[in-house]
Amino acid sequence: MSSCAVRKTIGIGLLLATSLAAVADSTSAPSAAGRVPQPVIEAARGGQCVEDPAFMRRNHMTLLKHQRDDTLRGGIRTGNYSLKACIACHASQTSGSVNVASTNFCQSCHTYAAVKIDCFECHANKPAVKP
What we know:
Elements: H1 3-27, H2 53-74, H3 83-90, H4 105-113
Protein backbone atom coordinates (compact mmCIF):
# COMPACT_ATOMS: atom_id res chain seq x y z
CA MET A 1 0.00 0.00 0.00
CA SER A 2 1.40 3.39 -0.92
CA SER A 3 1.88 6.15 1.65
CA CYS A 4 -0.88 8.16 -0.08
CA ALA A 5 -3.32 5.26 0.31
CA VAL A 6 -2.32 4.83 3.97
CA ARG A 7 -2.95 8.54 4.65
CA LYS A 8 -6.35 8.32 2.93
CA THR A 9 -7.26 5.26 4.99
CA ILE A 10 -6.17 6.97 8.22
CA GLY A 11 -8.06 10.14 7.25
CA ILE A 12 -11.22 8.19 6.51
CA GLY A 13 -10.80 6.28 9.78
CA LEU A 14 -10.42 9.51 11.77
CA LEU A 15 -13.42 11.04 10.03
CA LEU A 16 -15.49 7.95 10.75
CA ALA A 17 -14.37 7.86 14.40
CA THR A 18 -15.20 11.55 14.84
CA SER A 19 -18.62 11.06 13.26
CA LEU A 20 -19.40 8.04 15.43
CA ALA A 21 -18.33 9.94 18.55
CA ALA A 22 -20.62 12.83 17.62
CA VAL A 23 -23.56 10.47 17.04
CA ALA A 24 -22.89 8.61 20.30
CA ASP A 25 -22.74 11.90 22.19
CA SER A 26 -26.05 13.10 20.74
CA THR A 27 -27.84 9.82 21.50
CA SER A 28 -26.56 9.33 25.03
CA ALA A 29 -28.90 9.62 28.00
CA PRO A 30 -30.28 13.14 28.37
CA SER A 31 -29.00 15.35 31.13
CA ALA A 32 -31.10 15.77 34.25
CA ALA A 33 -32.29 19.17 33.02
CA GLY A 34 -33.54 17.68 29.72
CA ARG A 35 -35.45 14.73 31.15
CA VAL A 36 -39.19 14.40 30.77
CA PRO A 37 -40.88 15.33 34.06
CA GLN A 38 -42.20 12.33 35.95
CA PRO A 39 -45.96 12.24 36.52
CA VAL A 40 -47.25 13.98 39.61
CA ILE A 41 -49.84 11.77 41.19
CA GLU A 42 -51.97 13.46 43.82
CA ALA A 43 -53.31 11.35 46.65
CA ALA A 44 -56.75 9.89 45.99
CA ARG A 45 -59.70 10.80 48.21
CA GLY A 46 -61.08 7.32 48.75
CA GLY A 47 -58.16 5.50 50.35
CA GLN A 48 -57.58 2.08 48.78
CA CYS A 49 -58.00 1.78 44.99
CA VAL A 50 -60.15 -0.98 43.51
CA GLU A 51 -56.96 -2.72 42.29
CA ASP A 52 -53.23 -2.59 42.89
CA PRO A 53 -51.67 0.62 41.44
CA ALA A 54 -49.28 -1.30 39.12
CA PHE A 55 -52.24 -3.28 37.75
CA MET A 56 -54.26 -0.11 37.24
CA ARG A 57 -51.42 1.66 35.42
CA ARG A 58 -51.23 -1.17 32.92
CA ASN A 59 -54.91 -2.18 32.63
CA HIS A 60 -57.13 0.82 33.44
CA MET A 61 -58.14 1.37 29.83
CA THR A 62 -59.17 -2.27 29.38
CA LEU A 63 -61.25 -2.08 32.56
CA LEU A 64 -62.89 1.17 31.46
CA LYS A 65 -63.68 -0.25 28.02
CA HIS A 66 -65.25 -3.35 29.58
CA GLN A 67 -67.30 -1.18 31.98
CA ARG A 68 -68.34 1.01 29.03
CA ASP A 69 -69.57 -2.04 27.12
CA ASP A 70 -71.53 -3.29 30.15
CA THR A 71 -73.10 0.14 30.60
CA LEU A 72 -73.91 0.92 26.97
CA ARG A 73 -74.87 -2.50 25.72
CA GLY A 74 -76.15 -4.13 28.90
CA GLY A 75 -77.55 -1.14 30.78
CA ILE A 76 -75.48 -2.15 33.82
CA ARG A 77 -74.49 1.02 35.68
CA THR A 78 -72.72 -0.52 38.63
CA GLY A 79 -69.22 -1.80 39.07
CA ASN A 80 -65.85 -0.96 40.51
CA TYR A 81 -64.44 0.28 37.23
CA SER A 82 -66.81 3.06 36.26
CA LEU A 83 -65.26 6.28 35.01
CA LYS A 84 -67.54 8.21 37.36
CA ALA A 85 -66.15 6.34 40.39
CA CYS A 86 -62.56 6.94 39.24
CA ILE A 87 -63.18 10.66 38.83
CA ALA A 88 -64.93 10.92 42.21
CA CYS A 89 -61.86 9.42 43.88
CA HIS A 90 -59.02 10.92 41.85
CA ALA A 91 -60.17 14.50 41.19
CA SER A 92 -57.65 17.05 42.41
CA GLN A 93 -58.27 18.73 45.75
CA THR A 94 -57.12 21.99 44.12
CA SER A 95 -58.83 22.04 40.71
CA GLY A 96 -61.58 19.50 41.39
CA SER A 97 -60.73 17.81 38.08
CA VAL A 98 -58.71 14.89 36.75
CA ASN A 99 -57.43 16.65 33.63
CA VAL A 100 -57.62 20.46 33.60
CA ALA A 101 -54.13 21.02 35.02
CA SER A 102 -50.84 19.34 34.20
CA THR A 103 -50.64 17.96 37.75
CA ASN A 104 -54.11 16.39 37.72
CA PHE A 105 -54.33 12.61 38.04
CA CYS A 106 -55.20 11.59 34.48
CA GLN A 107 -53.47 14.47 32.71
CA SER A 108 -50.14 13.98 34.48
CA CYS A 109 -49.70 10.33 33.45
CA HIS A 110 -51.14 10.77 29.98
CA THR A 111 -48.78 13.67 29.28
CA TYR A 112 -45.85 11.57 30.50
CA ALA A 113 -46.88 8.65 28.27
CA ALA A 114 -47.74 10.97 25.34
CA VAL A 115 -51.27 9.56 25.14
CA LYS A 116 -54.26 11.73 24.22
CA ILE A 117 -57.17 11.61 26.65
CA ASP A 118 -60.45 11.59 24.75
CA CYS A 119 -62.74 10.44 27.57
CA PHE A 120 -63.58 13.99 28.58
CA GLU A 121 -64.78 15.06 25.18
CA CYS A 122 -68.06 13.46 26.27
CA HIS A 123 -67.69 12.73 29.99
CA ALA A 124 -67.39 15.20 32.86
CA ASN A 125 -63.87 15.57 34.23
CA LYS A 126 -65.10 16.59 37.68
CA PRO A 127 -67.17 14.65 40.19
CA ALA A 128 -70.86 15.40 40.31
CA VAL A 129 -71.80 18.00 42.89
CA LYS A 130 -73.88 16.40 45.63
CA PRO A 131 -76.92 18.47 46.63
